[in-house]
Amino acid sequence: MCQSNTLQGPDLHTGKWLQFPQLALRRRLGQLSCMSRPALKLRSWPLTILYYLLPFGALKPLTRVGWRPMSRVALYKSVPTRLLSRAWGRLNQVELPTWLRKPVYSLYIWTFGVNMKEAAVEDLHHYRNLSEFFRRKLKPQARPVCCVHSVISPSDGKILNFGQVKNCEVEQVKGVTYSLESFLGPRISREELRFSQAPPHNSFQQQLVTKEGNELYHCVIYLAPGDYHCFHSPTDWRVSHRRHFPGSLMSVNPGVARWIKELFCHNERVVLTGDWKHGFFSLTAVGATNVGSIRIYFDQDLHTNSPCYSKGSYNDFSFISNNNKEGIPMRKGEHLGEFNLGSTIVLIFEAPKDFKFQLKAGQKIRFGEALGSL
């Protein structure tokens, strides 16, 4: 005998009451689908955070009625990192009372493993604010510069990746690549083109190589918050051009770099290009969360993480003029710039095929130590 599945009596009323929340939620989701993309992102952002944070899949039933959470990557990209970094920069400039300096800096030293014995000034009371502490100078003998190898590390940090550039792609970490042209930007400046002998129809990578038989190499160095925050010239070269890309200020921690493809192309960065004895040479300082301030000592016109710039744009500045035909000469080990916390340095340069890196991926390195040589 067949049994009927029809709800009757109290069961019928219970079923109706169970359907009301679902119907209301469907109607609300239908309203959300009619919203503009910015408004929709604003409305679904808090719900997505709760979806990932609440235990036991508390909000998973929402997916059964048509709602879909933003991906973790999209959620992270929607965080206003530029605004937060500007606020952090303001906080760093606040002068701390003398009695508060030692406990605050001691906590930072303990958390990130800072070696204050290398600092030019070891007395913590000397640093008036966090910004001065982050940008502390080292004792002259703390970082001897290698004279034997042609390219040295421009900073303290961790080697994320290195090697030859292949197929116009560069690895930010093992297995995760980004476009060489997206990272450096198009070659449109006259002073860059004068070095290259490659025909314009060649690939972007081939256009960067100025001498026959040379290859293009790269090296990525991650600066942790506890590292020395200044960076130096990695070799003897001439800086002819600066390109500033305003952008996001997402974390460049290796874990995040594995998570977000082309992270370095999304983030704000300052690209310095020029030439050394073997051809093309570039150093790029990549910004990160709370590191909106990138300073180049010889470039007083550079202002990073400024609200007057828009994402996706870039601006160029040439150091070659009628009065200066050679650009800015830099000696190996010379002070070049600084970050306000920790970030990433990317070197992309041309060298003969017998150039060899003296590195291992993941190793710690200090400013002045050898990267590679012929």
From TrEMBL:
EC number: 4.1.1.65
Enzyme class: lyase
Signal peptide: none
Annotated positions of the Pyruvic acid (Ser) modification: S343
Keyword Transmembrane helix attached: yes
A GO cellular-component term linked to this record: mitochondrial inner membrane
Parts of the chain on the Mitochondrial matrix side: 1-41
Free-text description of this protein's post-translational modifications in UniProt: Is synthesized initially as an inactive proenzyme. Formation of the active enzyme involves a self-maturation process in which the active site pyruvoyl group is generated from an internal serine residue via an autocatalytic post-translational modification. Two non-identical subunits are generated from the proenzyme in this reaction, and the pyruvate is formed at the N-terminus of the alpha chain, which is derived from the carboxyl end of the proenzyme.
Active-site residue list: D156, H232, S343
Pathway as given in its UniProt record: Phospholipid metabolism; phosphatidylethanolamine biosynthesis; Lipid metabolism
Entry note: cofactor: Binds 1 pyruvoyl group covalently per subunit.
Record-annotated site: Cleavage (non-hydrolytic): G342, S343
Residue intervals on the Mitochondrial intermembrane side: 61-374
Compartments it resides in: Lipid droplet
Principal cellular location given in the protein's record: other
UniProt superkingdom: Eukaryota
Cofactor: pyruvate
Reactions it catalyzes: a 1,2-diacyl-sn-glycero-3-phospho-L-serine + H(+) = a 1,2-diacyl-sn-glycero-3-phosphoethanolamine + CO2
GO molecular function: phosphatidylserine decarboxylase activity
InterPro entries: PS_Dcarbxylase, PSD-B, PSD_type1_euk
Transmembrane keyword on record: yes
Pfam families: PS_Dcarbxylase
Family as reported in the entry's similarity comment: Belongs to the phosphatidylserine decarboxylase family. PSD-B subfamily. Eukaryotic type I sub-subfamily.
PANTHER family: PHOSPHATIDYLSERINE DECARBOXYLASE, PHOSPHATIDYLSERINE DECARBOXYLASE PROENZYME, MITOCHONDRIAL
Oligomeric form and interacting partners: Heterodimer of a large membrane-associated beta subunit and a small pyruvoyl-containing alpha subunit.
Name of the molecule in the record: Phosphatidylserine decarboxylase proenzyme, mitochondrial
Species this protein is from: Patagioenas fasciata monilis
